[in-house]
Design a protein that fits this description.
Layout: E1 2-3, H1 8-15, E2 30-38, E3 44-46, E4 49-50, H2 54-61, E5 64-67, E6 70-74, E7 78-84, E8 89-97, E9 104-109, E10 114-116, E11 123-128, E12 131-139, E13 142-146, H3 148-155, E14 159-161, E15 164-169, E16 172-175
Parallel strand pairs: 1-2, 2-7, 8-13
Antiparallel strand pairs: 2-3, 3-4, 5-6, 6-7, 8-9, 9-10, 11-12, 12-13, 14-15, 15-16
Amino acid sequence: MLNEKIDLQELVSLVSGREAPPVASWNPSVQRTIDMRIDRSGGWFYNGSSIKRERMVALFSTILRREADGYYLVTPGEKLRITVDDVPFIALLMDVTGEGVGQNLRFTDNVGNVFCADHEHPLWLQSKGEQTIPYVMVRDQLPARLAIPVYYQLADYVSFHNGVTGVWSSGEFFPLSGDKL
C-alpha cells in the first residue's frame, strides 16, 4: 500500500450527489493508505490539519467502511485506509419517546445520522481498561460512542428486565453490561 497524498476535492467529486453510496458492494482494485484520521472526539484530520467543513466530513462519512483490519474510505475506483482512534462517530443527542417496552431512543451523531436503537442499531457497554464506555451501532458495523451527557441522560431510562439492567428501545431490551465491539 502506498501512502500518497490525495486531492480532497477529487475525492469529493467522486462521491458527491449521492445520499447513501453502496460502499458495501464496491470492491476497487486500487488500495492505498492516506494520512486521514478520526480522533477520539470525532474530529476529522487530513495531513495533520483539521477538516473544518462539516459538509465535507459528512460526505466522507457516507463512504466509510469498516473491515476486519481497519477503516477505509471507499469509492468505486479506490479504497483508502484511514486511522480511527476509537470509533468514527459520536452520538451527541438522544431523544426519547414513549416509555417502558414502548420506549424509543433516537440518537443524532456528529455528522447528522439520525437513528433509533433497535435490532440493526444495538446499544451496548464495553470495558476499556478501567472505563466502561457506551456505544450504539450507526450502520454497517460503524459504531458511535455516546457523548458523556448522552450517557448520563441514558441513565435516566435504565430499567430491569428478567434481573438484568438495561434500556428498552423499539421493543427490544438492551442489557447494559458486557462487551460487543
